[in-house]
Write a structure and sequence with these properties.
By secondary structure, the chain is of the alpha/beta class. It has a single domain (3-13, 27-192), classed as 3-Layer(aba) Sandwich (Rossmann fold), CATH 3.40.50. The protein is 35% helix and 18% strand. The chain contains 7 helices and 7 strands. It has helices spanning 3-12, 42-54, 78-88, 109-121, 137-143, 159-170, 185-192, and strands at residues 32-36, 62-67, 94-97, 100-105, 128-132, 148-153, 176-180. A 7-stranded mixed sheet has the order 3-4-2-5-1-6-7, with helices on both faces. Strand 3 and strand 4 form a beta hairpin. Helix 1 packs parallel to helix 6 (159-170), helix 2 crosses helix 7 (185-192) and helix 4 packs parallel to helix 5 (137-143). The two termini are 30 Å apart.
Length: 209
């Protein structure tokens, strides 16, 4: 299996086992999105999606949750700093950077999903992005309950495999669409801090119904 096929299979396509239904229902938030992208692109794609959701009325900061070690803190807006402080006060591993509050989730799927719902419950109306570098059974149950699913791709990615990946995401239930990974170092850094938004609607390629 070549590298491209391996990437499509392990990063984007659904695991072989069936997805178990989630036991919780999401509390109301301004927007709850799931983002999948290659590990090297995940921070900038998730941050750019969060920045786009932050444009909605009443949202001054957004939350990005991802499994793995906690990210380093960065200079942040007052709203993002206050949001990170709020989540930290609830014993969530949150740090602020730019206009975002980033929360580290446990890498174990069961614990990670449970922690993600705690974040959603404490979001106080802020948009929440669940950022994942690959599909797995436990997190699929969470992705099935978001408002939208977004798949980060590069222009050079193979269209056939991208289409399969998008259809597999759409099978979870929420609307699924492609977003383009920012090009250039400055654009990627700005998106990763929530300072530059990705285009989510105009021209977005959605999975066929």
């Amino acid at each position: 299996m070549n590298d491209l096929l391996a990437r499509a299979g392990s990063l984007f396509l659904a695991p072989a086992a069936p997805v178990a239904p989630a036991a919780m229902v999401a509390p109301p938030v301004a927007d709850l999105a799931g983002v999948l992208a290659a590990p090297a692109d995940l921070a900038c794609v998730a941050g750019g999606v969060a920045a786009a959701l932050r444009r909605r009325p009443g949202a001054r900061a957004a939350i990005v949750c991802a499994p793995g070690p906690p990210p380093a803190g960065r200079p942040a807006s007052p709203a993002a700093t206050a949001l990170a402080r709020r989540l930290s006060g609830r014993e969530l591993n949150a740090v602020a950077g730019g206009t975002l509050c980033r929360v580290a989730l446990p890498e174990n799927a069961e614990a990670g999903v449970r922690e993600a719902w705690r974040v959603v419950a404490a979001a106080a109306g802020a948009p929440v992005v669940i950022a994942l570098a690959r599909r797995c059974d436990g997190f699929d149950a969470l992705l099935a309950q978001v408002d939208r699913l977004l798949l980060g791709t590069r222009p050079a990615d193979d269209c056939a495999y991208t289409g399969l990946a998008l259809e597999a995401l759409a099978a979870l239930g929420p609307p699924a669409a492609l977003v383009t990974v920012p090009a250039g170092l400055l654009a990627r850094r700005a998106a990763a801090l929530g300072l530059a938004a990705l285009e989510l609607d105009a021209g977005a390629q959605e999975a066929p119904a």
